[in-house]
Each structure stands twice: as C-alpha cells, then as structure tokens.
Amino acid sequence: QVQLVESGGGSVQTGGSLTLSCAASGPAYRNNYMGWFRQAPGKEREGVAVRDRGGSIRYADSVKGRFTISKDNAKNTLYLQMNSLKPEDSAMYYCAAGTDGSWLPLENYSYNYWGQGTQVTVSS
C-alpha cells in the first residue's frame, strides 16, 4: 500500500510563494505517475500538475508559468513549487499517485492513492 504525506501548506499574501512536499512510502515502484490536486470549498477537486516516472510533466492552464512540479527520486518525494500565488489558488492541496498506463492524467479517477491534504490560503 502506497502512503502519501503532504506538508508545506500555509498562509501567504498575493504574489507570495510556497513549496509543497509529498513524501511517498510503500511500494512506490508501482507508481507510473504522481500529481497534485486541489479542492476549494464548494468546488470540485481539480488536477494541478502531474509528473510521470519518465519525467514528463503536464500542468493545468490555470497554473502554467507559476507552478513547478518536481521529484527527488532518492527521497521519493514529490514537490510543488508555487509562485505568484493568487487568492483563487486557495484550496486544500492533495498529492496522488496512479499505477495504470494513463498519459499524464489530471482527472481524479485515474489515481489509486491519495494523501490527506495540506491547506493553502492566499490572502489579498
């Protein structure tokens, strides 16, 4: 069973930066891709960024140019560097991992494992 633990959330002002971390444990070799999702109150969970085991990356249009997903394979940790944050980026952010052959999915249903989430709040 893959376990994912997020950290790094917090409160920042508009234009600020945060880096989220997701530590993976268990049979991580099964993960073909890992991604970041977010969910604001009253809204559906949306995919933010995904990285596959080969290093290919895909971003949601809303975060392109501002967010960067990366992974430290030695530490088995996924990161999300978030710059130029806006109030609309405020949400609970989740790390997720998937094991099927989907190509860089940003849809919830493709993912098998989920972390507990870390809150990001951006004030204007």
Structure notes:
This protein has 124 residues and is mainly beta. The protein is built from no helices and eleven strands. It has strands at 3-7, 10-13, 18-25, 33-39, 46-52, 57-59, 67-72, 77-82, 91-98, 113-114, 118-123. The strands form two sheets. Strands 2, 4, 5, 6, 9, 10 and 11 form a seven-stranded mixed sheet that branches. A four-stranded antiparallel sheet has the order 1-3-8-7, with no helix packed on it. The model has no long low-confidence stretch (mean pLDDT 95).
Key terms:
single chain, 124 residues, mainly beta, 7-stranded mixed sheet, 4-stranded antiparallel sheet
Helix percent band: under 10%
Radius of gyration: 13 Å
User: What's the overall average pLDDT, rounded?
Assistant: 95
Unreliable stretches, pLDDT < 50, 5 or more residues?
Answer: none
Beta percentage is over 45%
Largest sheet: 7 strands, mixed
| Total count of helical runs of at least 4 residues | 0
Envelope shape: globular
Secondary-structure element string: EEEEEEEEEEE
Beta strands, count: 11
In whole angstroms, the N-to-C terminal distance is: 40 Å
Decide which structural class fits the backbone: mainly beta
